[in-house]
Amino acid sequence: MIRLAAIALLVPLAALFALAVGGTAIAPHDLLLAILHPHQPSDSATILWSLRLPRIAIAATVGASLALAGTLMQALLRNPLIDPYITGVSSGAGAAIAIGVTLGVALAAVPAIGFVAGLATAVLVAVLARRGSGLDAERLILAGVSISALMSALIALALTVLAQGSASAQIIAWLAGSLSGRGWIDLAAAAPYAVAGAILGIATIPALNVVRLGERRAATLGVDIGQLQWILLAAAALLTAAAVALSGLVGFVGLIVPHLARRLVGADLRAGVPAAVALGAALVIVADAASRALFAPLEIPLGVLLAFIGVPAFLYLYLRGTARVYT
Amino acid sequence: MLRLSGLAVARGGRTLLRDVDATFLPGTFTALMGANGVGKSTLLATMCGVLAPAAGSVMLDADDVTTLDARTRAQRMALVEPTESALASMTVEDAVAAARFPYHRWWEWQPSDADRAAVGDALNATALTELRGRELGTLSAGERQRVWVALALAQRARVIALDEPTTHLDLRFAIETLTLLRRLADDGAVVIAVLHTLEEAASFADRVVLVGDGRVLADGTPATALTPAKLHAAFGVTIEVEARGGSLSFHRKTK
Q1: With CB atoms 3.0 to 4.6 Å apart as the test, which of A155, A290, A314, B183 could cross-link to A98 if both were Cys?
Q2: What is the mean pLDDT of residues B164-173?
Q3: Which of B53, B33, B1 has the alpha carbon at shortest distance from B202?
Q4: Taking all residues of chain A, what is their mean pLDDT, rounded to a whole number?
C-alpha cells in the first residue's frame, strides 16, 4: 500500500518536472505564478497552459493507456513478452497513415485515420484468433505477429515507392513516436476511447487475478474465459488505438512498465494495474520532457528516446540475477 | 444430485466413453476407476460443465450444467485437476482466496467475512495454514496438490469432483485427504474422485464406477464392482480379491 502510494506520487512529481523543463526554462517562482494565475498575460503562463500542460496530459494518457493495455494482455495471455501492439493496432494504424499521407491526406486527419485503421486491424487479428466462443492465445500471438509483418511491408512500400516530397519525412516522424504539435483538441478526441478501454479493462481485474491459476482452473472457478478474452481484447485495442492516435508508435512502455509494476508491487493485479498506470504515465511524461529539453530546439522522437532509456533498463533488470519474469 | 443420461464424452474429436448413465446422490463418495486414457478425466470435466458432452446430458438437480453460467456452476460444483501451471509467485493464501471468485460480483474486490472464513477453514482442513504465505513456486508437488484440494473446499460447492487427488501425496496426506473427502460426503456433499489405488477406493468410497472399453464396466459398492473378472476387464491384470472382516484386500495373482 505504501509502495503503491509512493508510485502514485511519481505522477505529480513527473508533471512538475515536465512543467519546468523545456526549450525555455521557467524559474520556479514564475512557474508558481503561472500555475496560480492561468489568465495572467505572461509568456510563462502561455507556455505553461497552452503548450506544456496539454503535452503532459497527453503524455500521461499515452503512458497510462499503453501500460494498462500491456498489463492486461500479459495477464490474459500469461506471457511476459506480449505488448499491446500484439493486437495489431499500431501496425494497422501505421500502414493506413503511411498510405494516407502518400495520397495527400491532410495532416489533421492522421490521428483519426490511425485510430480507425488500428481498431479495424485489431478486429481482423481477433477474428483470425477466434476459437469456439473465445480466443486461442497462441493463435492470437501468431495472427498479431503476422498481420503486423504484413502492415510493416505496406509501410515500407509506401515509404520506398509511393511517398514523394515531404511525405516520407511525415511518415517516419509518426513511426518514431512524438507528441510534437499535439494539444487539448487531440486529447479531447482520443480520451473518451481511452477511458472506455480503461473501464472495460479495470472491470476484469478480479477475473484476471483468477486466471493466474491457469485458464482451465479459472474456468472451473467461475470465470467465463471466452467473454473475458473478448472484453480484454476490446479494452486493449481501444487503449492502444487512443495512444497511437495521440503519439504515433511509442514502444516499450507497454512491455516494460507491466514488468516493472510486477517487480514493485507483486502479481496481484489489484495493486499491479494502478502501479502500472502510474508508472506508465510518469515515465512518458518525463521522457517527453526530456525529448523536448535535451537538444532544444531540436526534439528527439519520443519513441526513440524511450527505447534508448527503456532497453538498457529492461536488460539490466532481467538479465541480472535470477529474477523470474512471469511464471 | 448429479444425473448423467446417455452421456458420451470426447477429447480431440475422439469419443472415449458412451452411454454413461449414472446418478450421484448427496452423501456418497464415488471412486471413478479405470486404465490410463480411457476417459476418466474427460468424464469428470464433462460432468462439471468444463467440456461439452458429445451426446446425452448432465443434470445438476433441475439444471442442465451446460446452460448454467460460469459463476453459478462454480458455486455448485468444484473440479480439482492436477495439471496446468499456475503463476509461481502467487502465495498459497492468494491462490485459495481465488476460489471465492464465484461469490463476488464484478465490482466487489475485497474479501467478505464469509470469504475469510471459507479460506481459513480450507487452509486448516488441508494443513496449509502454516504455508499460507509461501509462494506456489516454492512448494513440493504434494503441497501444491493440497492447495488444489483447498481451492475446492473454499469454493463451498455441494458437488466436488477430483482428478487423482492423492497423486504426489505421501501416505499421511493421502489418508488425510481421503478422510476429508469421506467427511464431506458424510456431511451431504456429492464426492466423485478418480483414484488409482484399489485399497483407497475400497476403504473410503461407498461406490465404485469402473470404466473401460468405451463404457461403464461396473457400477456398485466396492465389493460388487471390484471383482477379479471386472478388474481384469478394466486393467488386463489378474487380481485376487479377498474379503475379510468387512474390508477388501487385493493381491496380484502369481502362479
Answers
A1: A155
A2: 88
A3: B33
A4: 85
B55 occurs within a structural domain: yes
Residues of chain B positioned with their CB less than 8 A from the CB of A270 = 109
Residue B111 resides in a domain: no
**Residue B28: CB partners within 8 Å, gap ≥ 6?**
B185, B190, B191, B206, B207
> Across the A/B interface, how many CB contacts are shorter than 8 Å?
81
Question: Could you tell me which chain A residue has the CA closest to the CA of B157?
Answer: A221
Residues A175-184 have pLDDT tens digits of: 888 887 788 8
- Summarize pLDDT for A304-318 with one digit per residue, the tens: 888 887 778 777 767
Q: How far apart are the first and last CA of chain B?
A: 45
Helix axes A253-265, A302-319, angle to 10 degrees: 40
Lowest mean pLDDT among A31-40, A285-294, B78-87, B217-226: A31-40
B149 located within any domain: no
Q: Which domain holds residue B240?
A: 2-84+157-252
Please state the domain count of chain B: 1
B79/chain A closest Cα distance in angstroms: 6
Query: Is it the case that residue A151 has pLDDT exceeding 70?
Result: yes
Secondary structure string (H, E, C) spanning chain B:
CEEEEEEEEEECCEEEEEEEEEEECCCCEEEEEECCCCCHHHHHHHHCCCCCCCEEEEEECCEEHHHCCHHHHHHHEEEECCCCCCCCCCEHHHHHHHHHHHHCCCCCCCCCHHHHHHHHHHHHHCCCHHHCCCEHHHCCHHHHHHHHHHHHHHCCCCEEEEECCCCCCCHHHHHHHHHHHHHHHHCCCEEEEECCCHHHHHHHCCEEEEEECCEEEEEECHHHHCCHHHHHHHHCCCEEEEEECCEEEEEECCC
Residue matched to cell numbers 494497422: A92
Q: How far apart are CA A258 and CA B184, in angstroms?
A: 42
Query: Per the structure block, which three cell numbers stand in for B231?
Result: 478388474
Chain A's closest residue to B47, CA to CA, is A220
Q: Do A222 and B151 touch (CB under 8 A)?
A: no
pLDDT at A326: 45
Confirm whether B141 is domain-assigned.
no
Q: Are B82 and B147 in contact (CB under 8 A)?
A: no
Nearest CA to B8 out of B43, B50, B41, B37 is that of B43
| CATH number of the domain enclosing B50 | 3.40.50.300
Answer whether A78 touches B (CB < 8 Å): yes
CATH superfamily membership of A2-319: ABC transporter involved in vitamin B12 uptake, BtuC (1.10.3470.10)
Q: Inspect the interface and report whether the beta carbons of A221 and B109 lie closer than 8 Å.
A: no
Neighbours of A211 (CB within 10 A): 26
Rounded-to-integer distance, Cα A216 and Cα B84, Å? 8
Our measurement of the distance from residue A142's CA atom to the centroid of its chain's CA atoms, rounded to an integer in Å, reads: 21
Site from B101, B160, B163 to mutate, A interface, most A CB atoms within 10 angstroms: B101
pLDDT attached to residue A327: 42
Residue A5 grid cell: 502510494
A217·B104 Cβ contact <8 A: no
- Dihedral angle sign, alpha carbons of residues A304, A309, A315, A317: negative
